UniProtKB/TrEMBL annotation, chain B:
InterPro entries named among the record's database cross-references: Nase/OxRdtase_comp1 (IPR000510), NifE-like (IPR049939)
Keywords noted in UniProt: Oxidoreductase
Enzyme class, UniProt record, top EC level: oxidoreductase
The keyword Oxidoreductase appears for this protein: yes
Domain of life according to the entry: Bacteria
Record protein name field: Nitrogenase molybdenum-iron protein beta chain
GO MF, one example: nitrogenase activity
Length: 492, 456
């Protein structure tokens, strides 16, 4: 991987991934070829003749909903604000972590047609003040939107004025949907705001604390890191503003996904001296080993780590044997976010499954730190060999239906809402792997195996759905040989 | 419109894509930012009790996924090519190009692009539905208007007596639209009408829309949504319309509604009365069979009624629960943001159909800010644990927190799977009773005394 640019916390905006990481949303080939071509940034984005709805960075910036005690103001018409599902999901996660409930404090400015003509700055001011009054938050995130961006709202000016007035961080998040096809750019944007306006220089170093960047998932890392006498500092979901402000005090920064977190990990290293864990994420045996070893190296626990790894391997081996026997011969396809798809691939190969293809929703040709050890695709190819039928597209069911019909996997693993249905409608036993944490670490492997087995055993419902479903694609389209036919006009 | 909103109860005008999808084999082509279609789907369909993508919805909706270059240089040329490819890839009977905020603000003309294809005989129309134009209800109105205007078009009607077009629900902003439309169609056919129900599995799809000008009359069962379509059809085809500002729920209101409709349509009274009498016989047989339960468990059945929902449903549900099941109305919160000039009619309609509105909070309240609704209910409860709150998942949290019961009537619904549930008409009334009475067991085990175990 080529060296990436330094993080620029002095600027209000972080560049979107197309520019920063030369991310792409279209590729079709093999894992090794993709990895090789990324080394010299030879992949380009294509103008597509046809596409289906994607996801936008404005929605992903909504990860700010998950910060305990913070409020979010969406400077947008009402369609952009979606707190209902998040409100439920967050407290399900809190229960799983043994944490108290938290409320989701979201206000939309509800921009109207006249606001797009006369400007919405006054409305924004009123809404931010109202958020302060209603929620007494410790910080307020102000998310931009397509409409706010196009009419040229000066969110930066309003937020800095209100930060002075209200005496809490008022954080502008620049995440206009049209600026990026890579929806996770929006998470970068929220992280950028947190790093600029919430994280403080370390008051007191906490040598047993490990930052774990993750989504709102189950509590895998307390027991795992506990074996090394370390504490997991789960960020940023479910953490409060005070906890976020102390990320600088941790011994190191780990994460569950390079796609999610190499940006803040790099920033914490560069600006606050917190070293980034140089390892692929802890999915599958060898990557979990590497992850623990690297954390142990930084925190001076190398001997202990070797003991833990040895005893965990011993404990795991018989469980794994049983699982492998039950899954033997099953052909699996993965359809998930960039790095996480690589992580599940690694696990499936540990489980002895036949990995017949992978599609990732986008591909970063480098990561923010540019670390070779954290390059999950490179690591995957290096340790497990090439993977065929490896493609990149941002969901696009019309293509995936053809890919899956062609490959006929026994089991499909999906990580994105509304996408598992593609497999269900083709009669393929499918799991939607929403909680990433549960698959992490040694036990994650067994738990993933159990979910796959359940999907396989209950496949009759999928087969029944397939019998009665009609897809909306034309005969012409279904007769085309190349699923990626309409995505190949290169753009400048 | 108005100010800030917490806990939104509707999505934006682009939710008109769900109106398109509610017509069998009609497909939206969204010209908007990359996340818009998915957000609208997530709120309108997923948060409507997990109503799925159906035929070509959800993640399969065509979308230009507007990018920076389109915003700077205009997205129309790209849209032109895009629509051509959509027509090749997809198998649909009607394509509706919908604009979102990006295309709306940069001035791309989706209607012009649609007309280009329509001239060549393709079933393509355009609808200007940028989010800032209004909410889901407004988006529905825009889409229906454009379908009539551009797709059904200027034709000379061949009127068939007894044929009626029904405008009754915003799918799936009314989470029970599928079951409701089925029941409405059933009872209208029961009194001898032929029905173009227009949306859902009971609709024949675009052939029904083509048939729309031939109706004897249009029926609007809603305080304001649907009026625009009826007025347009009156202007274009001279079709008269009957406007009843509520969705009929339970036998009293349904019977009254059917008689009004029959009268308007000039149907012979005999068969109409026969149908109503038979429906009532069935309904009240079930109804009376609940008497044992109601009598024994009177202490456990809530009595104070709070309703949070769109005006069409809130009116009908309140009337049934108050007039026929003896609830006392305490708060009615209408969340569909009706135009101001309709609000006094809605108030009037409510007092016309509800026997006794008590001395409630100014009843009803028009409120789009969820927090304001919840604060008001909390205040009015005064610590009572005798309330039934009909509303969204947000009201479930409130009910749990205050030790009361809740039932779903409006979006967002994130903890309930809605399939053919309906509270409309006769069958819907029974279903509503079943759900209300069953809900008392959700709070814990109860006895036929005054005791409850595990009440949260
Ligand atoms: S409000 Fe505008 S930008 Fe937001 S989802 Fe609706 S159309 Fe898209």
């Amino acid at each position: 991987m080529a060296m990436a640019h330094p993080v620029r916390l002095d600027l209000p905006e972080v560049e979107v991934r197309e520019q920063r990481l030369r991310a792409t949303v279209s590729y079709n080939g093999t894992a090794r070829d993709l990895s090789r071509r990324s080394k010299n940034f030879s992949l380009v984005n294509h103008e597509r003749g046809f596409e289906q709805c994607s996801t936008c960075q404005q929605g992903c910036a909504g990860i700010a909903y998950n910060v305990r005690g913070a409020a979010v103001v969406e400077h947008s018409p009402i369609g952009c604000a979606q707190p209902a599902s998040a409100a439920m999901g967050i407290n399900v996660a809190n229960a799983a972590r043994g944490l108290p409930d938290q409320s989701v404090n979201v206000l939309s400015t509800n921009l109207s047609e006249s606001d797009t003509v006369y400007g919405g700055a006054e409305k924004l001011r009123a809404t931010v003040r109202e958020a302060k009054r209603r929620f007494s938050p410790d910080a307020i995130f102000v998310l931009s939107s397509c409409a706010a961006g196009i009419i040229g709202e000066d969110i930066e000016a309003v937020t800095s004025e209100l930060q002075d007035e209200l005496g809490i961080p008022v954080i502008p998040v620049f995440c206009e949907g049209f600026r990026s096809k890579i929806w996770i750019s929006g998470i970068d944007a929220t992280f950028h705001g947190i790093l600029r306006q919430i994280v403080k220089p370390a008051r007191k170093k906490q040598p047993d604390l490990v930052n774990v960047f993750n989504f709102e998932g189950s509590d895998t890392f307390t027991p795992l890191l506990g074996k090394l006498d370390l504490r997991a500092n789960y960020v940023i979901s479910l953490a409060d503003v005070e906890t976020l402000s102390r990320m600088s005090e941790a011994a190191c920064t780990a994460h569950i996904c390079e796609t999610l977190a190499t940006y803040p990990a790099k920033a914490l290293e560069q600006e606050f001296g917190v070293p980034e864990v140089r390892s692929p994420p802890p999915f599958g045996i060898s990557w979990t080993d590497a992850w623990l070893r690297e954390i142990a190296r930084i925190t001076d626990r190398e001997e202990l780590a070797e003991q833990v790894i040895e005893s965990e391997h011993k404990r795991l081996e018989p469980l794994l044997e049983t699982m492998r026997a039950q899954l033997a011969g099953r052909r699996v396809y993965i359809f998930a976010g960039d790095s996480y798809a690589h992580s599940i691939s690694n696990m499936l190969l540990d489980l002895g499954l036949d990995l017949i293809g992978v599609n990732t929703f986008h591909h970063d040709q480098t990561t923010d730190g540019g670390l070779e050890e954290a390059d999950s695709l490179g690591q995957l190819v290096a340790s497990k060999g090439d993977i065929g039928n490896f493609s990149v597209c941002d969901k696009q069911p019309f293509q995936m239906v053809k890919v899956l019909k062609d490959l006929q996997p026994d089991i499909l693993i999906v990580r994105h809402t509304n996408m598992a249905v593609i497999g269900a409608k083709l009669g393929i036993p499918t799991i939607q792997d929403g909680d990433v944490n549960i698959s992490a670490g040694y036990d994650g492997l067994i738990k993933l195996g159990e979910r796959l087995l359940t999907a396989w055993r209950t496949r009759r419902i999928f087969q029944n759905i397939a019998r009665h479903h009609r897809h909306p694609y034309s005969e012409w389209w279904m007769a085309q040989n190349d699923p990626f036919l309409l995505s190949s006009e290169p753009v400048a | 419109m108005g100010g800030y909103i917490e806990q939104p109860r509707f999505s934006c005008a682009l939710a008109g894509q769900q109106t398109v999808l509610a017509i069998p084999r009609a497909l939206p082509v969204v010209h908007a930012g990359p996340g818009c279609s998915g957000k609208v789907f997530a709120f309108s369909a997923t948060n409507a009790g997990f109503q799925g993508e159906g035929y070509g919805g959800g993640g399969a909706v065509s979308s230009t996924n507007t990018g920076e270059t389109d915003v700077v240089f205009g997205g129309e040329p790209k849209l032109e090519r895009f629509v051509g490819n959509a027509l090749r890839v997809l198998d649909g009977d009607l394509f509706v190009i919908l604009s979102g905020c990006t295309s709306g603000l940069i001035g791309d003309d989706v209607v012009r692009v649609a007309q280009q294809y329509a001239r060549d005989g393709h079933p393509v129309i355009g609808a200007e539905t940028p989010g800032f134009r209004g909410n889901s209800y407004v988006g529905h109105e825009i889409v229906v208007h454009e379908i009539i205007d551009q797709f059904v078009g200027d034709v000379t009607p061949a009127v068939r007596p007894g044929l009626v077009n029904v405008f009754a629900s915003v799918p799936p902003q009314n989470p029970f639209w599928r079951g409701d439309l089925a029941e409405i169609k059933r009872v209208l056919e029961g009194i001898g009408l032929q029905v173009n129900i227009l949306f859902g599995a009971g609709s024949a799809g675009i052939s029904e829309w083509r048939d729309l000008p031939n109706a004897q009359f249009n029926l609007v069962l809603s305080p304001w949504v649907g009026l625009d379509a009826a007025e347009l059809a009156e202007k274009k085809y001279g079709t008269p319309y009957l406007h009843l500002p509520f969705l009929p729920i339970g036998p009293e209101l349904t019977g009254k509604t059917l008689r009004t409709i029959a009268d308007f349509a000039g149907l012979p009274a005999g068969p109409v009365e026969e149908f109503i009498a038979h429906e009532e016989l069935v309904f009240y047989d079930y109804f009376v069979s609940t008497a044992d339960f109601v009598a024994d468990y009177r202490n456990m059945i809530p009595s104070e009624l709070y309703v949070v929902g769109d005006s069409a449903y809130a009116l009908g549900a309140t009337a049934f629960l108050v007039n026929e099941l003896g609830f006392v109305p305490e708060g009615i919160y209408l969340t569909d943001d009706p135009p101001e000039n309709r609000q006094s009619d809605i108030r009037q309609a409510l007092s016309d159909i509800v026997a006794d509105l008590g001395d409630g909070d100014p009843v009803p309240r028009f409120e789009i800010d969820g927090r304001a609704i919840q604060d008001s209910i909390r205040t009015r409860l005064h610590g009572s644990t005798k309330a039934l709150i009909l509303g969204s998942t947000w009201e479930d949290y409130l009910a749990r927190e205050t030790g009361n019961l809740s039932l779903h009537l409006s979006l967002p619904i994130t903890n309930d799977v809605v399939i053919d549930r309906s509270y409309a008409g006769y069958r819907g009334g029974l279903r509503l009773m079943e759900d209300v009475y069953t809900s008392i067991f959700k709070a814990g085990d109860i006895a036929d005394t005054t005791l409850t175990r595990n009440k949260q």
